[in-house]
Design a protein that fits this description.
- By secondary structure, the chain is mainly α.
- About 75% of the residues lie in helices and about 0% in strands.
- The protein is globular and about 75 Å long.
């Protein structure tokens, strides 16, 4: 037993060392250097960046308010009523969780660009304008809608229907019971989702760059200002970028605390652990009209922007009239047959595959160790920290921490040189650190559902701890492991913020190529790549759904 305990402690120590080296440590180094750089020049920089800070705050608040305003009634209608086609509508409204916000921004440019947008071609130039703070908040609010829908749905499914029955007994109608009982109980969870949308908007880079830099006047935010400082000073002199990254981190901390508080409030006030059955509330005569309204909303907010991206990919030039003479397949053949596109796709697939496997393997490691005492809780917190930090901040932290090669000497015998600067290895490390929580959280839930007697039986028959886990528990965890790897692959293959900031010069991944084509070169060509990325996402989502279904049938 002592040997097994010592071995488990060694595994925990090794995992803790990895998290400190590649996740928590770089963030700590960045914070320390940002604090060391505070001085008269720093206050001058903060004064220069006050507009960017104010824009970040108001855009994030606007996006969160929009997501909560839309997500609250949608959660009620889609998850607690007998609304027709609610299964299909749920899937449509959850699509923004799978497709990068940058692609939604491209869709709204194709739809509402003042002179070239499809809607303005119909209703007149200048009728719609997606540029500026309002446009950024709108796009990010819609992109963050699933962050409100999912916790709202989980909360409403845990509410005891007897509470609604009690309200009905005292004279409330079906909708009145939803309004007076269900909504107040689910409000903390809905609000915590709004906080997550605030964090999404505050840390966003691609959408604010695309819709803010081209606005009249320009609308800078902290992330685009950090990017500009890196372009000016380079990775060798990140002093000004460091200070702004510190400000962005400070902006995220209160939101994280608020989200944690609201999440706990939601868990305390809701019924749990009873396996309550979902019961649909009848909408009566309002059933058909509400279905039409929700379906139109799904079409306008989700499907129309994606269709606009696809249609733009067939335009000879951006803004050309919508007729057969101005549509062509040449964009697809040129982009998909380009050596640069193929190289970027190959690089992205390799990196995303490595990141997906790393997220699944390390996530399983974290999930196993996190169940053991105080050290396990520390490891779980360290694994989750990078996911709560804006991607821009994590990228700056890695650039600062690994600006020079690290020489590691192990046991005074073996020497290793850790050279991440200017390599794709840094981008791979960033992917795994940022999205490790995908694996650790999903696999923690899967392990919690395992019957402990599986491993105990193997131990009784002489198997060691690792062999018992491998032979008895691991086969039951394969569906969750596969889902974590697929989700990690999907997220990293289409990631933009970390990719733009960390990809080495002269190299491309899909995210950086998409960003460059849309921002500087050729919107129709960018739309081809965006359409291909969307198809890749949908295919991966379908594969993940099949894996989940197979796992459910097996269990």
């Amino acid at each position: 037993m002592r040997r097994a305990g010592g071995r488990a402690g060694g595994w925990a120590a090794g995992l803790l060392g990895l998290l400190v080296l590649f996740a928590v440590g770089p963030i700590g180094v960045m914070v320390a250097q940002a604090l060391a750089g505070i001085g008269p020049q720093a206050f001058g920089l903060l004064a220069e960046a006050r507009d960017a800070l104010w824009n970040s705050v108001r855009i994030s608040l606007g996006a969160a308010a929009l997501a909560v305003a839309l997500g609250t009634p949608l959660s009620l209608l889609l998850y607690r009523t007998d609304l027709p086609l609610r299964g299909v509508l749920r899937a449509v409204f959850l699509l923004p969780a799978a497709i990068p916000p940058f692609i939604w921004g491209m869709g709204w440019i194709s739809l509402a660009s003042p002179r070239a947008g499809f809607l303005n071609q119909v209703f007149g130039a200048g009728t719609f304008n997606p540029y500026g703070a309002a446009g950024i908040a709108f796009v990010l609010g819609v992109a963050g809608l699933p962050l409100v829908l999912l916790p709202g749905a989980a909360a409403m499914r845990r509410i005891d229907p007897a509470l609604e029955d009690a309200a009905r007994i005292h004279g409330a109608g079906p909708l009145g019971a939803l309004w007076r009982i269900t909504l107040p109980l689910a409000l903390p969870s809905l609000s915590s989702g709004g906080v997550m949308v605030f964090l999404l908007a505050a840390s966003a880079f691609g959408v604010p760059y695309m819709l803010g830099i081209a606005a009249t006047p320009p609308t800078p935010v902290l992330t685009t200002r950090i990017y500009a400082e890196l372009l000016i000073g380079g990775a060798e002199r990140p002093d000004r970028a460091l200070l702004l990254a510190g400000v962005l981190l400070l902006l995220a901390v209160p939101a994280l605390l608020a989200g944690r508080f609201l999440g706990r409030a939601g868990r305390v006030r809701l019924s749990s652990g009873k396996g309550l059955a979902e019961r649909a509330v009848s909408l009566g005569r309002l059933r058909a009209p509400l279905a039409v309204v929700v379906a139109l909303g799904a079409f306008a907010l989700v499907l129309l922007p994606l269709f606009a991206v696809l249609l733009t990919s067939f335009q000879r030039t951006f803004g050309a009239p919508l007729d057969a003479g101005h549509l062509t397949l040449s964009n697809w053949t040129a982009v998909m047959g380009s050596a640069r596109t193929l190289q970027a796709a190959a690089t992205s697939l390799v990196l995303a595959t490595g990141a997906g496997l790393g997220i699944a393997a390390l996530g399983l490691w974290v999930a196993r160790v996190a169940r053991r005492g105080a050290v396990g809780q520390v490891i779980d917190a360290f694994a989750a920290l990078p996911s709560a930090v804006p991607g821009t901040v994590l990228a700056i932290a890695l650039l600062v921490a690994y600006a020079q090669d690290w020489r590691l000497v192990v046991f005074g015998r073996w020497a290793f040189v850790l050279a991440l600067a200017g390599s794709l290895w840094m981008l791979l490390v960033a992917y795994v650190a940022k999205y490790l929580v995908i694996g650790s959280r999903g696999l923690s839930e899967a392990i919690a559902q395992l019957d402990p007697s599986l491993e105990e039986s193997a131990r009784i028959f002489g198997a060691g701890p690792l062999q018992a886990f491998r032979d008895a528990a691991l086969p039951a965890l394969w569906p969750a492991l596969t889902a974590a790897a697929l989700l990690g692959f999907l997220t990293c293959a289409t990631e933009i913020t970390l990719s733009v900031l960390l990809v080495p010069p002269g190299r491309d991944v899909l995210g950086t190529l998409l960003f460059e084509l849309q921002s500087y070169a050729d919107p129709p060509a960018a739309s081809v790549l965006a359409s291909a990325v969307a198809l890749l996402v949908l295919a991966a989502q379908g594969a993940a759904a099949l894996v989940a279904k197979a796992g459910a049938q097996r269990s």
